[in-house]
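Holo model, tetrahydrodeoxyuridine. Inputs:
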Amino acid sequence: METKYKEIIKRSLEARKRSYCPYSHYAVGAALLDSKGNITIGCNIENASYGATNCAERTAFFKAVSEGIKEFDAIAIAGGKQGEEPVDYAYPCGICRQVMREFCNVNTFKVFIVKSEDEYEEYVLEDLLPKSFGPDNL
Ligand code: THU
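Output:
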């Protein structure tokens, strides 16, 4: 495992601690690696009007894109009960997969689903969002 991927795995677990999840008590952290090697973290941010909630992955993407970053290499995602270490793999929701699709190459963008620093799964976006619709279709 390359150092940069080890680092985002660790940072995704740390990012969970920033989660604002008073309604679900389900804390998600994401760490997004861009093509220059920089990492942007994100957490889920809930809202009393539940539909206004933003997922951790989209928080990371929107932070990065709003800073002018549009080329990405990988994301690590960790989720589980607030205040506890993850016990299951937390796969990204459909909306977050589609946001990844907007900015990432489906065949090369890596998605790490993280339970701990030593327990994780590795995919490329195509595995999680096959036969997708993206910018090149318009
Ligand atoms: N959540 C994420 O942050 N990422 C996902 O991909 C799935 C769900 C958050 C949203 C909400 O705050 C909580 O998990 C429960 O759905």
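The chain is about 30% helix and 25% strand. Strands lie at 26-34, 39-43, 72-81, 110-114, 120-124.
Archived with the compound record.
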